[in-house]
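Work Package 3 (structural annotation) set out to generate three-dimensional models for the target panel prioritized at the project kickoff. During this period the team completed the workflow that converts sequence records into discrete structure tokens, so that structures can be stored uniformly alongside our sequence database. As a representative example, we reproduce one entry of 331 residues exactly as it appears in the project archive.
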Amino acid sequence: MIVVLKQNFMQEQLDMLLHWLQEQGIAVHQSLGEHSTVLGLIGDTAGLDTDLIEAQDFVEKVQRVQEPFKKANRKFHPIDTVVGVGGVKIGAGNFAVMAGPCSVESPEQVSEIAAAVKASGAGILRGGAFKPRTSPYDFQGMGNDGIELLLQAKAQTGLPIVTEIMNVSHLPAFEHVDCIQVGARNMQNFELLKELGRCNKPILLKRGLANTIQEWLMSAEYIMAGGNQQVILCERGIRTFETATRNTLDLSAVCVIKEKSHLPIVVDPSHATGVSRYVKQLAVAAAAVGADGLMIEVHNNPAKALCDGPQSLTPAQFDDVMRAVNQVRAK
């Protein structure tokens, strides 16, 4: 349930309403906008008398919300949320590009790529230290050593870093990481989401390859219910019957998320297609449809990459993509 207050309400009136709601066992999320104040009522609101609340002269309207996600719901929070990642803003017109290798492989590799993507306009360095792989025989990442190499690249370039967490037990190693990524396979790892809800770091939440938008938003709700409101959604393609690409990029999800939620959403065309030559067109399309950013894989030698080389761009190709995306955003 949401309660929209009139513009000229008195603080004493609001305090009395909040106190009464708390006595009813209802938690209240306040969203203070420039033109309106919205109270999001969380809990068992079935027994609340909406007519009684709406009868208060400082209340504009009361509306019941049917969706199970509350904190991620735009009805509760009409203003777009802006999430800061190491000083880089994402959301509400702030567009950010995260770029870097699928997996960290060596000091030279990550340092060279970090410098290249920064020169082309990327604001955040992405790189995998822990890598979930379908085959147990594939390269699994460098683990803690990979995070150290990312931090070294951050010190050299000034780029904040985002990297994926696989297990709650790894959380201490992420102390100096600017943004923690939850991969598609862990989107419904609810114990991990609960723990991330208790940390004070931005969380990049990727959509599961077979999950609906509502399930995705419910996973965001797990994090936000724990107290961490710094959630960035990432559309990375879903599994369909099509085999020409690795996944099917659902750009309509950007439109739906913008309607249903206030959270920022970025698009990952690299994982969506698995084919580097398709990345440019889909990156441009994502910017045109209103995404708040992009996540793109870049490798200095894709042919020799230890992970996902076929979908990785060279630094020169990434520079070309950035120019095309900037042209679209300037229109």
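The radius of gyration is 21 Å.
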